[in-house]
Amino acid sequence: MDGKIVNLKSKIEIYKAMTDGANFADCPVRNVMQGINGKWSPLLVMALAEKPYRFGELRRLVPDISQRMLTQTLHELQRDGYVHREVFPTKPPSVEYSLTDLGRSMFVPLYQLVQWAELNHHAVRDARAAFEAAHA
Amino acid sequence: MDGKIVNLKSKIEIYKAMTDGANFADCPVRNVMQGINGKWSPLLVMALAEKPYRFGELRRLVPDISQRMLTQTLHELQRDGYVHREVFPTKPPSVEYSLTDLGRSMFVPLYQLVQWAELNHHAVRDARAAFEAAHA
DNA sequence: CAGCATCCCTCCGGATACTG
DNA sequence: CAGTATCCGGAGGGATGCTG
Q: Is B132 helix (H, G, I), strand (E, B) or coil?
């Protein structure tokens, strides 16, 4: 239990924060990560980071999302405080989605990760090809 | 189609990179993100960022992961080039897992996101509580 | 326009038992 | 010790049709 072991756990302890120590199931850090890591969540956050969008605009911007998943993902992002939903009582009604301060704050590190993915997806693709070849 | 619209798409275009334009289904950036965003992947990358671990050590470090998921997640991380798997021909055999250069590179932005989650999970929890209260 | 409701199916992921 | 194999329940997510 010397300094090395303390240092050894410093990264994973972030995940253990506020957990009862027995498991990670209800770890709050994991909860937040799970909310960000949906299939469509990062894509929609990236879009809304640019400017507010209305529902139909998002549909056209992301053509292959089902309307069910668009509704549901926006609902979750709103519930977690990343997205603000504003209804304009026109007829027919229009609804505008925008990032909150919390959403813009979260966007910063998310964007870093997406940029990493853009720069390195070739390396990942090559690694997968090499792995498949080795196990053929 | 003025400058504003061009700027409007600058963030989401990262996701569209190398896609045929019709959908995001086979977008390489999304593929990379999906590989990172598994239920256990970030946690294991965090652990291996500290030092190499053997299989059993990881089991004890993350008590509530099933051994099936530990095997599978490590396999995927190895396939995508993030993790190196080295077998020592002792008896009984021991297997050590460690991050590759690519894995350490990916860890940098991932760590930023995890740190954000640690700093802001209270805000997310409060937002959820307020949302549930408003829709009660 | 901006959704909600329903059906249905895939696959993620846990529990358990067995192996080199 | 470090896995593989099998079973199975539940959540994730697409397609379609209806509403204010």
A: helix
Q: Note which residues in 73-112 of chain B have CB less than 8 A from chain A.
A: 78-81, 102, 105-106, 108-112
Q: What is the pLDDT of residues A107-121, one digit of tens each?
A: 999 999 999 998 999
Count H helices and E strands in chain A, helices first: 7, 3
Encode pLDDT of B88-128 as tens digits: 999 899 999 999 999 999 999 999 999 999 899 999 999 99
Burial string for B103-118 (b: 16+ CB within 10 Å, else e) reads: bebbbebbbbbbebbb
A13 reaches B (C-beta below 8 A): no
The token pair at B102 is 């690519």
In percent, the amount of chain B with pLDDT more than 70 equals: 84
Label residue A12 by pLDDT band (50, 70, 90). confident
Distance in Å, residue B125 CA to nucleotide D15 C1': 34
How many CB atoms are located within 10 Å of the residue B90 CB?
7
B55 CB inside 7 Å of strand D: yes
Instruction: Name the residue closest to the C1' of C15 by its CA.
Output: B66
